[in-house]
Amino acid sequence: MSTPSTNGVRKLVLLSGRGEPERRPASAPMQESGAEWTVLRCSWFMQNFSEDFLLGAVLDGVIALPAADVPEPFLDVEDIVDVAVAALTQEGTRASCTR
Prior knowledge:
The structure is a single chain. By secondary structure, this protein is α/β, with parallel strands linked by helices. Helix content is 28%, strand content 18%. It has helices at residues 23-31, 55-60, 77-89; strands spanning 11-17, 36-42, 44-45, 74-75. The strands form two sheets. A two-stranded parallel ribbon has the order 1-2. Strands 3-4 form a two-stranded parallel ribbon. Strand 3 (44-45), helix 2 (55-60) and strand 4 form a beta-alpha-beta unit. The radius of gyration is 17 Å and the shape is elongated. The two termini are 29 Å apart.
């Protein structure tokens, strides 16, 4: 079977959900590939408020989310890209979360 490392791929980056039970089996092939890997776990993007499904709520002045009192990070996709590029291009840069 061909793997990323046998094809010359040295580094992989996966954008994955945070807190989703499916994330572990989905990332297992990457983790077992023999390549260096980085998992970026994100759940909400800042662009949801300006470019996507929450724009109407923002314009109406009311945003209701089923998040209770749980702190939830909102990430800008450009920041995610910066981290992915660093993980792929800079030696010794690897980020992962095992939770």
